[in-house]
């Protein structure tokens, strides 16, 4: 199904890609094998981490303005309780995303990151956000969100601008892995 793709950690050799502003993808390049291959690799990396909800291209070493949100986020948003149904929700690709609107209301939300493994902290984020982007077929779309998805839009856009959540977080703490993944359905 997927090949193993390394997710760059903040202290890895080559981690400087995490600290640079990513390059926009020319619209004509979206259908190219190179960009489609990067998207496949991003999906593979995300699928390899049970607790991952999204990933940005710099996290796999590609300085491109692309992020992918896991289908399980959309399953959760739609309040599907049956984990088997989560497979019906595809990962969603955002190419050249820009946040075009945010709510004035903000709140602190706990975050972690696949490139800062086992570190968590509280980040102040807008409670709602609207993003404009292209999908993996090159179609432009706009999507508004609240809660977890709005948080993801802001977190992943930060990645594309060279910012890690630990740059903004308070109360950073280490929480080693447990037996169960951190991403769970609300009871």
Task: Write a structural description.
The chain has 187 residues and is α+β, with helices and mostly antiparallel strands. It has a single domain (15-174), classed as Peptide Deformylase (Alpha-Beta Complex), CATH 3.90.45. Helices cover 19% and strands 27% of the residues. It contains 3 helices and 8 strands; from the N terminus they run αββαβββββαβ. The protein has helices at residues 33-47, 71-77, 147-160, and strands at 54-56, 66-69, 92-102, 106-111, 119-126, 128-134, 140-146, 170-174. The strands form 2 sheets. It has a 5-stranded antiparallel beta sheet, with helices on both faces. A hairpin with a 5-residue loop joins strand 6 (128-134) and strand 7. The longest helix is centred in the N-terminal third of the chain and has 15 residues, at 33-47. It is globular. 33% of the residues are buried. The model has no long low-confidence stretch (mean pLDDT 90).
Task: Itemize the secondary structure elements and their pairings.
Elements lengths: L32 H15 L6 E3 L9 E4 L1 H7 L14 E11 L3 E6 L7 E8 L1 E7 L5 E7 H14 L9 E5 L13
Antiparallel strand pairs: 1-2, 2-3, 3-6, 4-5, 5-8, 6-7
- Care to count the β-strands? 8
Structure classification: alpha+beta
**CATH-derived topology:** Peptide Deformylase
Structural shape: globular
Mean pLDDT: 90
Tell me the number of structural domains.
Answer: 1
Fourth-level CATH superfamily: Peptide deformylase
Residue windows where pLDDT falls under 50 for at least 5 positions: none
> Can you tell me the CATH architecture?
Alpha-Beta Complex
CATH class: Alpha Beta
Head-to-tail CA distance between termini: 31 Å
Q: Major beta sheet, specifics? A: 5 strands, antiparallel
Radius of gyration equals: 16 Å
Order of helices and strands: HEEHEEEEEHE
Q: How many distinct helices?
A: 3
- Oligomer class: single chain
Fraction of helical residues: 10-25%
Main-sheet strand order equals: 1-2-3-6-7
Proportion of residues in β-strands:
25-35%
């Amino acid at each position: 199904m997927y090949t193993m793709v390394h997710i760059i950690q903040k202290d890895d050799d080559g981690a400087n890609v995490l600290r640079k502003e990513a390059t926009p993808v020319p619209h004509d390049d979206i259908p190219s094998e190179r960009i489609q291959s990067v998207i496949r690799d991003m999906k593979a990396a995300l699928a390899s981490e049970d607790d991952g909800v999204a990933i940005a291209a710099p996290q796999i070493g590609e300085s491109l303005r692309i992020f992918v949100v896991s289908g399980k986020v959309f399953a959760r948003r739609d309040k599907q309780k049956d984990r088997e149904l989560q497979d019906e929700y595809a990962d969603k690709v955002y190419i050249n995303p820009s946040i075009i609107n945010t709510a004035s209301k903000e709140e602190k939300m706990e975050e972690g990151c696949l490139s800062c493994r086992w570190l968590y902290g509280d980040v102040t984020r807008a409670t709602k956000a609207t993003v404009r982007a292209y999908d993996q077929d090159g179609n432009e779309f706009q999507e508004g969100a609240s809660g977890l998805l709005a948080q993801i839009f802001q977190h992943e856009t930060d990645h594309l601008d060279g910012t890690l959540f630990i740059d903004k977080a308070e109360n950073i703490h280490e929480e080693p892995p447990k037996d169960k993944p951190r991403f769970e359905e609300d009871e």
